[in-house]
Amino acid sequence: MEPLTDRDGCLPTVEKSDEGIVQLLKDLRDETSLLIRQEVQLAKTEVGEKLAVIARNSAYLGVGGLLAYTGVIVLALAATAGLFAGLRAMSVPELTSVWLAPLVIGLVIAIIGGILVLKAIRTITTQQPVPKKTVESVKDHARWLKRRAGGATT
Question: Fewer Cβ within 10 Å of end Cβ, the chain: N or C?
Fold first, then answer.
């Protein structure tokens, strides 16, 4: 196969400035490819970290709730019996002590439980799976690429 030649039979030549632009475009392509791979890896890492925090706190919420529920039942029975005995010692009629003791203990437990549930929900809802660092980094790199591409074409 013969090399391509122009009308005069000479091989075409590439200007030095054309080689520089070609090299710049190759470098831009390579750096852009590397940048995209790095951004994808950063996004995976950041999302993974956030999901791990959410999963861990969800597990804490579930296990803690189950253990607290079991413990609260036993403690509530003991506290109710103690309060009942205390009310009887203060000469509160037995009929009143029977319903008042569990009511007081139940209210205290419900308030504590509500506070703990609200704290767990607040912690979970403040975790956003959006990779903010990655989004900002991609925006910065896009601006940098625009500036660099603009400089290469001028």
Answer: N
